Amino acid sequence: MKRLSMIFKSKANKALDKMEDPRETLDYSYQRQLELLQKVRRGVADVATSRKRVELQINQAEAEAAKREQQAKSALAAGREDLARDALSRRTAIAGQVADLRVQYNNLQGEEEKLTLASQRLQAKVDSFRTRKETIKATYTAAEAQTRINEAFSGISEEMGDVGLAIQRAEDKTAQMQARAGAIDELLASGALDDYSGSPRDDIQAELDRMGAGGDVELELARMKAELGQGPAPKSAIEPGQAPGQPQPQHTQQYRQPGEA
Question: Do 37 and 119 touch, CB atoms closer than 8 A?
């Protein structure tokens, strides 16, 4: 089971790796960083809003404290010490609230500064990642295009190799057919094969044709001897009415050499 699980995981990982597009992964990572940066910015805005609200509360409390102090003075001027004491008591309470609000304000202001600095750093990292992302995507796209071109050339090379083999086979087969046709022609000419496409073979006529061809050769040879003075002038290899193969009749008139009477 462990081996089967490992095989399944390896095949699944291979399939996922084949399906994964690094450009899409980079875009997704960049989108997540933008979302995180947006959250940090919202946090900065929330802290700034809280700080501003505390600031308003401090201003209102200080205004209230100033009012109670003025009331205390007016009460003393009117001879109402009891009212003056009450006004001063309220001013003191308000002063305590202002002190607490100022502490809260300082904390929020410090938190806001930290978040602002973090937001600025994160913004710089996001900008750097975006530049690197686009560079990697462009490089990957170029490499992918080059790979497809190389694969196309490889396919063309394989196809051209197949074409070359087909041409070679066609040439070999053509040469084989030509040799076979030539051999059949020679066999037909020699009589080793019968030509059933034409008229039936006549052995007697074939022998007469062969003898006639031989007689032509002998006649030409005798003519050449006569021209060289090595024999009498030739006559027709076969006299009219004489069958081939019969002895030639003797003629009394001899061939004379040029210059003889």
Answer: yes
